[in-house]
Design goal:
Elements lengths: L2 H19 L7 H7 L14 H4 L2 H10 L5 E7 L2 E7 L3 H19 L11 H7 L5 E7 L2 E7 L3 H20 L1 H8 L1
Antiparallel strand pairs: 1-2, 2-4, 3-4
Length: about 180
């Protein structure tokens, strides 16, 4: 990606994130047009498309707002991880559940979307049949077990778990570092 394109993408994304964090919602049609149609654009499949902004991106942004209310307990397994993500706040717990259900549904439907803040998510979407996912809905969140017999996929699963830990602990700054 050329530097100018990268900077335009980052600026557009930051503007959108700030809009969500301040309660202003998705960018206007004019702003989406200025961001272009590619990865970040509002067109079909773009990160800022209506289907993504009303789905996993919206719940993800909401979770960044309340990251301090999220607790994670990770158990590394030889072939993956077992993560328990919870919140004492019922609204936050429901967001956690909704986000994981949405992401797993997209994986099952082979329906990826651009996700520049993560190095692991694109790899998980590129190889959804190389690992197994088990989701248990808890009263206060979720328990997820992800495993694989492929050593490279095991590394991706563990990297994703570490990314989620950083997102829960640090919020938006961790996400922005992931984009750089």
């Amino acid at each position: 990606m050329q530097r100018r394109t990268f900077l335009t993408t980052v600026v557009g994304f930051v503007g959108t994130v700030v809009g969500f964090l301040t309660g202003r919602g998705a960018p206007s049609a004019q702003a989406q047009g200025m961001m272009g149609g590619g990865m970040m654009g509002g067109g079909k499949g773009g990160m800022m498309s209506p289907e993504n902004m009303n789905g996993p991106m919206r719940t993800g942004m909401e979770l960044f707002k309340v990251h301090q209310q999220i607790q994670r307990k990770v158990t590394e397994l030889p072939n993956g991880v077992h993560d328990v993500t919870t919140s004492a706040d019922p609204t936050t717990a429901a967001l956690i559940q909704k986000h994981v259900v949405e992401m797993y549904a997209r994986l099952d439907q082979n329906h990826p979307f651009p996700y520049p803040m993560s190095n692991s998510v694109p790899q998980m979407f590129a190889h959804p049949t190389k690992y197994q996912r088990k989701l248990d809905i808890l009263p206060d969140g979720v328990a997820v077990t992800e495993t694989s017999t492929d050593p490279e996929m095991v590394a991706v699963i563990k990297a994703h778990s570490r990314e989620l830990d950083r997102f829960a602990k640090e919020g938006m700054p961790a996400m922005m570092r992931g984009m750089m």
